Amino acid sequence: MNLQLLFPVTLSSHWQRSDACTLPEHLQSWLLDPDSLTARLKTHCHQFRVELLGQKIEPCQVHEAVADIPAGEPVLVREVLLYCDDKPQVFARSLLPTASLTGAEQALANLGTQSLGQVLFNNSSLERKTIEIAEFDLTSSVGKLADDLQFNITHTLWGRRSIFMLENKPLMVAEVFLPGAFAYQTIARSVTKPRVAHG
Fold this sequence. Notes:
alpha+beta; eight-stranded antiparallel β-sheet; 10 strands
């Protein structure tokens, strides 16, 4: 299947602050991890790769707008799949305001199959703002993506998004864990013990 035909997947959901969510304990360690997701995934597999679904410049949509990236601002939308040993683990959607793609940051518009996260976390100026959490059901756009990837979907999908400041320039990265991702692997044992996440 030509996955590029699925672009853009988009992510419409009710995002909320992580401290307002009750998350299963095992999911907290993935959703609230402030460090590089790419680096963490690489520790779980022999081969890590990025597949670019597509990217294009368009106005920021109202449902994705935040204080740092207002509705209507031109953004470069980039969607990718992150694979571990050829198994899709994560769908990621990034919004890169064209106003942020100046100077050295122009290179972010031409990453291709490089990991955006790896580039970001190699920059000492990087600051991550509040992590927001969302749950996606099987009828959501990312749920349909998972279906197109021929996953056997038995539970809702969880995702997170953050605003990053790179050289004081904002960009947004949202990541949704696909069915069977490492983040869910203790779901049967831990789902009975939810607790409120703090911070």
